[in-house]
Design brief:
The protein is an alpha+beta fold and 179 residues long. It is 51% helix and 17% strand. It has one domain: Beta Polymerase, domain 2 (2-Layer Sandwich), CATH 3.30.460.
Amino acid sequence: MDEAESLNRAINEEVVIFPSDANWQRMFEEERERLFDLFPDDFLAIEHVGSTAVRGLSAKPVIDILAGVDSMSRADKLMEPLCRAGYATSMAFNASLVGRRWLMRWAEGRRTHHLHLMVYGSREWDQRLAFRNILRSNAELAQRYEKNKRLWAAEFKSDREAYTAAKAGFILEALKGAI
């Protein structure tokens, strides 16, 4: 499979939930180190977020990385260098985002990493970390989230944006009072 075909398959990949994998933490740590090495002065912090950051939680096997920058103009300036460093993105999709930028890495026709650039310490930054921490500390909530994610993945198997939107209500409810 050539690079263009691999990227196209990754972009159109179905939503599938996999059992927890101990390698997810290592994959995050390796990518965090690579990003800090490539961009030593640009990121204020790099955090592992999303379901792969919660031990024992099933997830799409995509490592979600939250990279904190000092401003959205810094995030915008990093887009092209990050693409040269192995990420891909949709400029049209990013134009629809407020307060963050999104990129992905892929290999062999599947997504491996999502990189979310956000202003360090912003409300959205704090919310993403708070949700991760809630799931890490509340096994019952994490199990309910996993059960719902499996239902949403079955319902929205071919529509990643609908799958992501379906999770929003659960996440907002979990965050009430957390911040």
